[in-house]
Design a protein that fits this description.
The complex is a heterodimer. Chain A is of the alpha/beta class. Chain A has one domain: 3-Layer(aba) Sandwich (Glycerol-3-phosphate (1)-acyltransferase), CATH 3.40.1130. Chain A is built from nine helices and seven strands; from the N terminus they run H-E-E-H-H-E-H-H-E-H-E-H-E-H-E-H. A seven-stranded mixed sheet of chain A has the order 1-7-6-2-5-3-4, sandwiched between helices. In chain A, helix 1 crosses helix 2. Chain A starts with 14 loop residues before the first helix and ends with a helix. Chain B is mainly alpha-helical. Chain B folds into three domains: 55 residues; 106 residues; 158 residues, no CATH class. Chain B is built from 13 helices and two strands, in the order H-H-H-H-H-H-H-H-H-H-E-E-H-H-H. Chain B has a two-stranded antiparallel sheet. The two termini of chain B are 16 Å apart. Classes of the chains: A alpha/beta, B mainly alpha. Chains A and B meet through loops of A and helix 3 and helix 4 of B.
Chain lengths: 216, 359
């Protein structure tokens, strides 16, 4: 039923493989995440998963919800100011192969979008949170324009909406100890940037694609 | 006590009963699979699906229980119930609205109070005084005070009461089921004769003549695993009997706004059928120290409590506007949906057994 390309055969089991598998198991156990795919299947083609942002666990749990073959090719895009602080976070970010973006010091010539396009090549997919920051009330804020530029520069990438439910209660803003409630990650049908579609209407369409999964 | 060497939890009679139950469930599983393959016109497919789901859940439930009882340490069964409690509490809190101010209280509820209760239960009957009060008293104080400390007073009493209720039903009440395993049971027949001795006026001839009191209150020769198994089997079968009698004869719905499946006819039929089942189990397998009428009474009380439990949890679900606990996804029954009757029945069953059938 699931359309999966077989994983490239790896020789020996390496240490990073064990760390990532253990990490995704822990993330899934802690967040009790149910994964749903609605009108969408796991695939190793290049995609941008865009999700609502509610908790520091978001990137980790969405990444862990993907099947291993897809997960190995998918990199969460995360804030450098959070994930580059301290040994543990830095090590975690390395384990799930995060692409760290400097939110505070964006240079004109080396924009995050250019970095993402460069790093992805023809292989990797990304998990992004277009709201830019976490939304404490659980509502979904306005999307920033990064998703639009990604869609414009790489029209071949599938843009997959993801709705994250209840993770903000597992690890709310300002807390460092999690409460192991159950959460739900819903992947929805991909969207693309239509030719000539204005930025604002695309971004609001993308936002409503995420919102629609809340009711599904 | 916790790791008593060579203590086998199961005795011969309970093993036989366990095997019979697993066999019956396997047959039911086979029948369900057969029905599933029939064409839609001959059988009600929704009902077959519900039946199959039930049978699968029971099969899992009893298989896991059997495995935990086969391990010669009581700790294995205590651990199993701890995991069930933990998961049930997870489901409960997930569907209960909480606020950011409850977060730290919840952390300690999950990672300190829930394990603590099961550690005390695991330590055995000497810790009865501790495990019977730690959650209702200290857990109660802690949750209230920790939520107050967060500074968020909005709907304070409602929020704390919800957390306390969850802790009470999912953890405290359920922990009485594995606590049964450490009771020192006495033989009911011997106890009855002892009562006769006490009731006889001095000088009058008692039926046992000069029975030595100590030997009269002799230890029951079976293992306590039998009564845990008896409790769970009666609760589960009580649910089935109620459902069956309700479908057959149900006219008067008890609480239409809470659960339309529960009728007075089903209730009475269920309680009486359970009494019959308890009697049969006692006659055929002797898994408990109860005699026939005691087994019938215990079964009736257990079923009534189980009924109260599932009605209560239905009321909470109705209030939340959901059909099942379980995941956030509609239509997936969770662990809490399966154990709600056991939660209410276990403490009462424990207290009755402790008061009348243990030393």
């Amino acid at each position: 039923m699931q359309r999966l390309t077989p994983a490239p055969s790896r020789g020996a089991v390496n240490m990073r493989g064990i760390t990532t598998t253990a990490l995704s198991l822990v993330a899934k156990a802690l967040s009790g995440a149910t994964t749903r795919w609605i009108d969408c299947h796991p695939d190793t083609c290049q995609r941008v998963y865009f999700a609502n942002h509610t908790s520091h666990l978001d990137a980790l749990v969405v990444w862990a919800s993907l099947p291993a073959e897809v997960r190995n090719l998918t990199r969460p895009v995360a804030a450098r100011d959070y994930w580059d602080r301290g040994f543990v976070r830095r090590h975690l970010a390395k384990s799930f192969n995060a692409l760290l973006i400097d939110r505070t010091n964006i240079k004109v010539h080396q924009s995050p979008i250019d970095l993402m396009l460069h790093e992805a090549g023809d292989v990797h997919s990304y998990i992004v949170f277009p709201e830019g920051g976490r939304n404490p009330e659980g509502e979904i804020g306005e999307f920033k324009s990064g998703l639009y530029y990604l869609g414009k520069k790489r029209p071949d990438w599938e843009l997959v909406p993801v709705y994250i439910d209840n993770l903000n209660r597992v690890l709310p803003r300002g807390e460092f100890l999690p409460v192991p409630l159950l959460s739900c990650i819903t992947f929805g049908p991909p969207i693309w940037l239509e030719p000539g579609e204005p930025k604002t209407s695309f971004l609001s369409r993308a936002r409503s694609a995420v919102l629609r999964l809340k009711e599904a | 006590m916790l790791l008593g060497p060579g203590v086998v939890q199961l005795d011969f009679h309970t093993s036989i009963l366990l095997a019979v139950v697993l066999l019956v469930l396997s047959i039911a599983f086979g029948v369900g699979q057969f029905l599933r393959r029939q064409t839609e016109t001959t059988v009600n497919s929704a009902m077959v699906q519900a039946f199959n789901l039930r049978v699968q859940t029971w099969w899992m439930m009893f298989a896991i229980l059997a495995v935990s009882l086969l391990i010669p340490f009581r700790a294995a069964t205590v651990l199993l119930f701890f995991l069930v409690s933990f998961w049930a509490l997870r489901e409960y809190i997930t569907l209960t609205p909480t606020r950011a101010g409850d977060h730290r209280a919840l952390f300690w509820v999950f990672f300190a109070f829930t394990p603590l209760q099961y550690i005390l239960v695991g330590l055995g009957r000497e810790y009865y005084d501790q495990y019977s009060i730690v959650l209702p008293v200290y857990g109660f104080f802690f949750v209230s005070a920790r939520v107050a400390l967060s500074g968020d007073h909005k709907r304070f009493l409602e929020r704390t009461a919800k957390i306390q209720a969850g802790l009470f039903v999912c953890v405290y009440a359920l922990s009485y089921a594995p606590a049964l395993l450490d009771l020192q049971l006495v033989d009911s027949h011997a106890m009855a004769s002892e009562t006769d001795v006490n009731n006889s006026p001095p000088g009058a001839e008692s039926p046992e003549g000069s029975t030595d009191l100590e030997s009269a209150r002799g230890n029951w020769q079976g293992k306590p695993a039998g009564i845990l198994f008896f409790l769970i089997l009666i609760v589960q079968m009580g649910d089935v009997f109620q459902y069956g009698w309700g479908k057959l004869l149900g006219r008067r719905i008890i609480a239409p706004t809470i659960n339309s499946n529960k009728t007075w006819e089903g209730f009475v039929g269920g309680v009486l059928s359970s009494a019959l089942l308890g009697t049969l189990l006692t006659l055929l397998f002797q898994v408990t120290p109860f005699n026939v009428w005691q087994a019938a009474l215990m079964s009736m009380v257990t079923t009534i409590m189980g009924y109260a439990g599932s009605l209560t949890m239905s009321a909470i679900k109705r209030d939340r506007g959901v059909k099942d606990y379980g995941t956030l996804v509609e239509g997936h029954p969770g662990i809490l949906d399966r154990i709600d009757s056991i939660c209410f029945a276990a403490p009462v069953f424990f207290h009755l057994t402790r008061a009348f059938f243990s030393r």
